[in-house]
Amino acid sequence: MWYSYITIQQSDDGAITAKVTTDSQSPWFAGHFPGDPILPGIAQLKMVTDVIAKALEKDLHLIGLTRIKFKKLIRPGVMLDIHASSTKQENNFSFRITSNRENVCSGTLTLAAKQEVEIHQSTLT
């Protein structure tokens, strides 16, 4: 795996927190960019999706994004804190990634179980 969980937990109010670190040997870094590696935004969003799915013990997939902001570059081996919580809209989660208490990325994800993704995709065609 291209990142490792250090901790992951869900509080009584449903808030999800995780501490993860990126693997400096990840193919994400090799291709983005040679000699100046940074973690691509899509990888950051996948990591948040995975954290939420693991905490909720569900097979969730990303189907929508809103208000995504990338504020800081993520270098190999950096320790990241991921914070997520459900919003008032069903299947939506607001999140933020921080590193050393600085905002790295934030926004809202819409996630769905695999069968819901298939239904969503069939309505698009």
How much of the sequence lies in strands comes to 35-45%
The CATH topology turns out to be Thiol Ester Dehydrase, Chain A
Enumerate how many helices there are, as a single number: 3
User: Number of DSSP strands?
Assistant: 6
Count of the domains: 1
Looking across the biggest beta sheet, what order are the strands in? Answer: 1-2-4-5-6-3
How would a textbook summarize the main sheet?
A: 6 strands, antiparallel
Written overview of the protein:
The chain is of the alpha+beta class and 125 residues long. It has a single domain (3-124), classed as Roll (Thiol Ester Dehydrase, Chain A), CATH 3.10.129.10. Helix content is 26%, strand content 43%. It has 3 helices and 6 strands. The chain has helices at 27-31, 41-56, 114-124; strands at 3-10, 16-22, 60-70, 79-86, 92-99, 102-113. It has a 6-stranded antiparallel β-sheet. The longest helix has 16 residues, at 41-56. The protein is globular and about 40 Å long. The model has no long low-confidence stretch (mean pLDDT 91).
